[in-house]
Amino acid sequence: MKNIFLILFLLLSAISCKKEAAKTITEKPAPVPSEASPEFNESVDVSLWDFNGDGKPDDEITVPVVEGSGNPVEDGTPGKFTITFDNKTLPDLAVGCCNPMPVGEGDLNGDGAAELSVFQAPMNGCVYTMATYTFRDGKWQQLFEPFIVPTGCDEISAEEVQSLVYKEGNKVYIMVTDVNDEDFKRTAKEVKL
Question: How far apart are CA 8 and CA 37, in angstroms?
Fold first, then answer.
C-alpha cells in the first residue's frame, strides 16, 4: 500500500513539474515599439529635421532593401533596411537588420544640424540597440558608441524610445539599463562627444 502511494505521489509530481516547465518555456514575441516598425515593402515617413544644417527640413524614409525570412540566428536570412532622405545631398544610411525606428534628436553636438538615432530590434531576442549618427564631412558618422536597450520582451513606447538620448544644457545623456535589476531600471549617463 505504501508503494502505491509513493508511486502515485511521484507520478503526480512529475506531471506537475512537466506542466510548470511548459509554462516557463513558452516564448514571448519580441517587443514592438507602439508606433509600429515597418513591415517589409512598407516605407515609413518619419520626421522632418534639418540633418545637414542648411536650414531646410530633411524628410527621412525607412526603406526595406532585403526581405528577411525565418530566424536569422537559425540559418534564416535577416532583413536589411536603409534610411533615405528627400534631400539628395544626404547619402542613404544603411542600418541593416532589423525593424529600425529612426528618431530625430535635434542638435546634440552644437554643429547647427540635427542628429539621427536608430532604435533597432535584435535578430532574435529582446535586447534592442540604439545608435546615434551625425552628418559630418559629407557622410554619416556615429556620434558615440551604440548602446543596448534590454526590454525583457515587454513593449516599449515611441515616447520611451525618444527619451533614450537627450541633451540638457551642453551635456548629452543616454539612458542606460541596469541589467542586474529585474525591472531593467534606466539611469542617465553622460556621453562625451
Answer: 52
Sign for the CA dihedral angle at 165, 166, 170, 173 comes to: negative
- Grid look-up 507520478 returns 11
Q: CB–CB of 98/78 below 8 Å?
A: yes
pLDDT of 113 higher than 80: yes
166: helix, coil or strand?
A: strand
CA dist 128 and 10 (Å) reads: 43
Q: Kindly state the cell numbers that stand for 6.
A: 509513493
β-bridge partners, 139 = 136
d(CA 190, CA 193) in angstroms, rounded, equals 10
Q: Which triple of cell numbers denotes residue 151?
A: 526590454
Residue 16, classified by CB atoms within 10 Å of its CB into exposed (0-12), middle (13-18) or buried (19+), is: exposed
Nearest to 122 by CA among 94, 93, 152: 152
Instruction: Tell me the whole-structure pTM to 2 decimals.
Output: 0.73
Q: What tens digit of pLDDT does each residue of 50-83 get? A: 998 988 888 888 888 888 887 777 888 888 999 9
Among 30, 184, 23, 18, residue whose Cα is nearest residue 99: 30
Write the pLDDT tens digit of every residue in 126-139: 999 999 999 999 99
Other CB atoms within 10 A of residue 62 CB: 22
User: Which residue has cell 531593467?
Assistant: 184
What residues contact 24, with CB distance under 8 A and at least 6 apart? none
